[in-house]
Amino acid sequence: MKIAVFAGDGIGPEVTQQAVRVLQALDLPGLELVEGDVGGAAWRKHGHPLPEVTLEIARAADAILFGAVGDFACDHLERHLRPEQAILGLRKELGLFANLRPARVFPGLEGHSALRPEVAGAIDLLIVRELNGDVYFGDKGIRTLANGERQGWDLMAYSESEVRRIAHAGFKAARGRKGRLCSVDKANVLETSQVWRDVVTAVAAEYPDVELSHMYVDNAAMQLVKSPGQFDVVVTGNLFGDILSDQASMCVGSIGLLASASMAEGTKGLYEPIHGSAPDIAGQDKANPMATILSAAMLLRHSFGREAEAARIESAVAAALADGVFGGDLGGSYGTTAIGDAVLGKL
Amino acid sequence: MKIAVFAGDGIGPEVTQQAVRVLQALDLPGLELVEGDVGGAAWRKHGHPLPEVTLEIARAADAILFGAVGDFACDHLERHLRPEQAILGLRKELGLFANLRPARVFPGLEGHSALRPEVAGAIDLLIVRELNGDVYFGDKGIRTLANGERQGWDLMAYSESEVRRIAHAGFKAARGRKGRLCSVDKANVLETSQVWRDVVTAVAAEYPDVELSHMYVDNAAMQLVKSPGQFDVVVTGNLFGDILSDQASMCVGSIGLLASASMAEGTKGLYEPIHGSAPDIAGQDKANPMATILSAAMLLRHSFGREAEAARIESAVAAALADGVFGGDLGGSYGTTAIGDAVLGKL
Ligand SMILES: CC(C)[C@H](C(=O)O)[C@@H](O)C(=O)O
Ligand SMILES: CC(C)[C@H](C(=O)O)[C@@H](O)C(=O)O
């Protein structure tokens, strides 16, 4: 089991360290951890947020555990040198086209959401976000118009095959859950969404056991606040998925607890907490490592089929939470290492 | 005062009728109401959702009161013939580039939001959404790639002058409120956002009394759930504004109470409830007309400078709500006409 560990910037290293401790405590056969530089940290050392040496480590690994990237000191850099390019580059270079973001309130934590407890408590959804296309990776630039002013432009696009593979990922995920898939687009305005909707509708024929619905993105953003309990699996494009998955995670109330998986064809995947690098609290033992620890659980499940160990980690986190092991994000006083200790104690 | 009244589809006619009753009750000097067809209703009569005769009425009017468009019977039509094209066409043809959507919980209605009452009660924000550019109005189409598959594409773009005029609208609105402007973009991914951010930052120099901040759209979607009370004025592009303004309206809890204004340069404007045509309850006297009545108040304020009458309408609606005049959207049993009667009674 070759796992690349890319800790990154800000709180990335400290939360990743706790997840590594958990992995090491599980006695996994042939566990091999290989560290690599990404983000601002990589830019400082190698002049690039995703240097070739890191990419090689990623290519050689079966799975990647990723911390977070983002560093205010890089704000002055050109966009292609900024820390965020590390994660965008890994997604593209490794063909990580399907981002899975489960959102569910941990039992007893309903009161931590901004939503009313009965609304938050009903949330149990999975967002399947396309990660390799859309306006993220289309041609883009800044041009000078005939009248002399500058215009920024980005091409949004999806081809049938790009939509087809993420649609399959969505239907398969729904099949393994409650059997409902909601496809989100803006087909009343976008031609990109028209192709999206056509393909998702066609793929549905292969999954007669899954109930498909379509929703416009503006309505989806409303419904995620009004009654998020209505959703099982949501499949959507890169840009809408970026917005809706962050929104959904906040409905759960605890961004410090949410993990994500980004999958290529096959079992290769990158696993990361959905929170950012939080440079303001970096190095202070204040960050909650649970989201990264839970990302390690997803890694064992999705890349190595190790359901038992994944469930062991998840139960340990749940048990620690039930004991009141709360980080600052939940209004508690447990530090990064203490939370790691508590989870290890429950393993 | 020449006001075009475009009632549209579904519940549009019945809610608009109540707003017209309110306008007529105010003894406005020289009030002239001119009706016109839009949406599915116009398509049935004229073969187009925004016929030239309607456009002429709109051009000749000082302001437009708009109901709602959208009709399932038109789902089979090509996109350019669908009801939604009426509102997109009016925005473009009349140069309605600034959409103002205030979101605030009516006193006593905090319990109707999916957000916890103390979170919802703190909301008092205004979204200023650009309406004439972005991926809505760029070149778009469906093409066949070299490998034979179809690709849908839409060009996202903003030029400096397009951003500048909406930035001014945002800063001016902030100046008239609590003096804080949050500009939302996705500058870590989009070149369009890069130009957006540059221009907004430059325009800020002309408003030293307004405090400017920038936020990525995914973070904004989170913050709108977590602590919406932090926002005063939010300025953003057409697509992000579509999503965030619907999300914000649902945080308030009562989509049946929210009005909007879409302004051109000068005082010409189009005013509409933010809810849709709700064909499922059309013609049943079930819809809440308050959002349309409040849109008429915005019309008097923004297009005619009639602050006194606008405030009179708003107070009447608030008084009716305080009396428990709730439509079905608020769990009450008041019908469309009864709500109109109640508001008229409080004028
Ligand atoms: C850092 C940024 C480029 C990234 C994205 O927009 O995809 C992030 O927001 C995410 O969702 O992983
Ligand atoms: C009907 C649709 C085209 C429209 C939009 O996307 O602008 C609507 O959602 C709105 O916000 O007014």
Descriptive key words:
12 helices; two-stranded antiparallel ribbon; metal-binding (chains A, B); NAD binding (chains A, B); magnesium ion binding (chains A, B); globular; 347 residues; Isopropylmalate Dehydrogenase; homodimer; leucine biosynthesis (chains A, B); 10-stranded mixed sheet; manganese (chains A, B); 2 domains; binds 3-isopropylmalic acid; alpha/beta
Report what the structure shows:
2 copies of one chain form a homodimer. Chain A is of the alpha/beta class. Chain A folds into 2 domains: 1-97 and 264-347, Isopropylmalate Dehydrogenase; 100-258, Isopropylmalate Dehydrogenase (3-Layer(aba) Sandwich), CATH 3.40.718. The first copy, chain A, has 12 helices and 12 strands. The longest helix of chain A is centred in the middle third of the chain and has 16 residues, at 160-175.
